[in-house]
């Protein structure tokens, strides 16, 4: 079978259509909400409303939530699963790469200033260090967390749907709550991440990777490099250092345990074959 015919078979298969049903529904919801924001409150959406709703919340809580949308934080969560469940982790990594390329291009093209650059005079609590480094539209954190949620919607049991969607919504909302993004940024980032997840799942099925133990080890090594740098990442959020250290420590400990189990399983399999 040629590569082109294989792509066509997977794309048109009932299994793929069933798998991406959840992410496609999420895409439609995000398109509706994005259109609503554009139609009713352009250019900044319901930013003031979101900020007012979050002013009563502790800054530490908002920073913790927003840090959960970082790519390296999510890779730390998935690192222990990279050997046992690579068919879940690999599509997410593909969707991250696709989403990152799209978001980088959109930020460069649109060059929308962040709230910290426009409103810092009237709202002193807005972050300005991040505002000087990156453009606002769309949100990278929203892309990452919605890519994570959409991949989980497609590949995990249904009982995970509500927690994943709730996490994505809270992380997206926190990006507006701390003043790092406009609501349209978050919705657009979520749409990019969800669409990237659909494509990442498709590419993951095409590639049939990783299959061999060496390929799984390469996948784990890639994630391990990202996790090792997590505690040293300059996020601009001083209250989240403990979270980054905790996630990295738990990920490394769990990964070490999984590596030992994986090695024992391989040794046991080879021993049975020799008999």
Describe the structure.
By secondary structure, this protein is mostly helical. It has one domain (60-265). 74% of the residues lie in helices and 0% in strands. It has helices spanning 3-12, 14-19, 21-41, 47-54, 59-67, 71-78, 86-110, 115-118, 129-133, 140-155, 161-177, 183-207, 213-228, 241-274. Helix 3 runs antiparallel to helix 12 (183-207), helix 5 (59-67) crosses helix 11 (161-177) and helix 11 packs across helix 12. The protein is globular and about 60 Å long. The two termini are 36 Å apart.
Quick overview of this protein structure:
The chain has 275 residues and is mainly alpha-helical. It has one domain (60-265). The chain has helices at 3-12, 14-19, 21-41, 47-54, 59-67, 71-78, 86-110, 115-118, 129-133, 140-155, 161-177, 183-207, 213-228, 241-274.
Fraction of residues in helices? over 70%
Overall mean pLDDT stands at 78
SSE arrangement, N to C:
HHHHHHHHHHHHHH
The N- and C-terminal alpha carbons lie at a distance of 36 Å
Biggest β-sheet strands, sense, barrel: none
Overall tally of structural domains: 1
C-alpha Rg (nearest Å):
20 Å
Give the strand content: under 5%
Q: How many beta strands in the DSSP annotation? A: 0
Morphology: globular
Broad structural category: mainly alpha
Count of DSSP H/I helices: 14
Would you identify the regions where 5 or more consecutive residues have pLDDT less than 50? 1-11
């Amino acid at each position: 079978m040629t590569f082109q015919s294989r792509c066509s078979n997977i794309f048109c298969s009932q299994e793929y259509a069933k798998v991406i049903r959840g992410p496609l529904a999420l895409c439609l919801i995000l398109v509706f909400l994005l259109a609503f924001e554009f139609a009713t409150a352009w250019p900044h959406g319901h930013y003031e409303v979101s900020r007012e709703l979050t002013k009563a919340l502790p800054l530490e809580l908002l920073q913790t939530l927003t840090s959960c949308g970082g790519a390296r934080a999510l890779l730390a969560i998935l690192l222990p699963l990279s050997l046992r469940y690579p068919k879940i982790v690999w599509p997410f990594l593909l969707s991250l790469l696709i989403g990152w390329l799209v978001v980088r291009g959109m930020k460069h093209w649109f060059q929308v200033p962040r709230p910290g650059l426009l409103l810092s005079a009237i709202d002193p609590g807005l972050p300005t260090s991040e505002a000087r480094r990156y453009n606002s539209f769309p949100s990278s954190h929203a892309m990452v967390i919605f890519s994570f949620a959409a991949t989980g919607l497609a590949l995990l049991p249904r009982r995970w749907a509500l927690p994943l969607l709730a996490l994505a919504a809270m992380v997206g909302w926190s990006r507006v709550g701390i003043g790092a993004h406009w609501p349209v940024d978050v919705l657009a980032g979520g749409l990019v991440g969800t669409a990237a997840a659909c494509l990442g799942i498709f590419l993951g099925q095409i590639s049939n990777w990783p299959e061999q133990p060496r390929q799984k080890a390469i996948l784990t090594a890639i994630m391990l490099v990202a996790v090792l740098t997590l505690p040293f990442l300059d996020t601009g959020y001083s209250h989240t250092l403990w979270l980054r250290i905790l996630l990295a420590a738990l990920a490394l400990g769990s990964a070490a345990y999984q590596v030992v189990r994986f090695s024992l399983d391989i040794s046991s399999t080879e021993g049975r074959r020799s008999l």
